[in-house]
Amino acid sequence: MKKTMTLLLFATAIALTGCDWIKGLGEVDFSTDLTVNIPVTVSSGNKATLNYTASSELKLADNEDVEPYLNKLRKIDLKSVVITITGLIPEQTINTLSLDVAGVGTLFTQNNITSTNNSFTPAVDAAKLNQAGEKLKNEKKITLTVSGTASGPMAFNAGVLFDATITAGALD
């Protein structure tokens, strides 16, 4: 009789707390860096400053930490973004650089990037980061575009690194 009552109480507790409680027990949180490299070529022209734009996709399937949980994602929390520009020589300047996420908008704009100040963590609107994380969770990829103006013809790489915490359902 005690076994039956205990079992009945346990079943009632599960029914009252719902499946979400049980589902929550199987969640796993982990931190990872989500990275993409965007090659940029600024072509020559007759202007004092030249415009450029280049895009690349950030795909979750390319990240070995995320890939096992690709179909079990519950939340992607993008904490910050770090930009590292490589390939500039001392006399080259990127006057402006903006990073956009397709369907979300501009995350930030940075000015006066040179070979000596080529890595930075810009201030980004938390709401935009949340939107980008949600889009990434739902679509498993996002398109990133860098655009702006440069002091002259040049080629450089814009490395984008998102510090992310990912929640996945390990038991899903």
Salient structural properties:
172 residues, alpha+beta, four-stranded antiparallel β-sheet
Description of the molecule:
- This protein is an alpha+beta fold.
- Helix content is 22%, strand content 49%.
- It has helices at 2-17, 19-25, 126-139; strands at residues 27-42, 50-59, 73-86, 94-101, 105-113, 119-120, 141-150, 154-169.
- The strands form 2 sheets. A 4-stranded antiparallel β-sheet has the order 1-8-3-6. Strands 2-7-4-5 form a 4-stranded antiparallel β-sheet.
- Strand 4 (94-101) and strand 5 (105-113) form a beta hairpin.
- The longest helix is centred in the first third of the chain and has 16 residues, at 2-17.
Quick structural gist:
It is built from 3 helices and 8 strands; from the N terminus they run ααββββββαββ. By secondary structure, it is an alpha+beta fold. The longest helix has 16 residues, at about 1-15.
Please list the strands of the largest sheet in the order they lie side by side.
Answer: 1-8-3-6
Given the helix and strand composition, which structural class is it?
Answer: alpha+beta
Q: What is the terminal-to-terminal distance? A: 35 Å
**How large is the share of residues in beta strands?**
over 45%
Shape: elongated
